Fold:
Amino acid sequence: MEVPILKLGEVLIATVPSALTDHALLQLRDSLVDQVGTLRAKGVIVDVTSLDVLDSFATRTLRDIAQIIKLRGAETVVVGIQPDVAFAMVRLGLKFEGVATALDLEEGFAFLNQRTAGGGRHATSRGV
Structure:
């Protein structure tokens, strides 16, 4: 299953479906990295609202996505981590070190606007 990627202004939005396979997650990584350059995006929002679980592979891959996109000159924010998912991640010791997170799409856009407006790229990101 391919994850659709939408473009809104200078931001790419990927809404991750609940039935996400490891292969689809790797495809998402490759597609986002390519599209950041092709579409000259300044920000990426990865919406994980529909996920009931984030295992170690998904957590590591999302962290890799954010780091690769940063090296390509754009910012990434992961939005929509559900309370049960956050609780399980903490209990399992899974971390989004260096990855910005936000409650929802609205906060994700606000974060990216702050980071990409007028040299705001050097602000500190918050992560789980």
Q: What stands out?
A: The first strand starts at residue 5 and ends at 8.
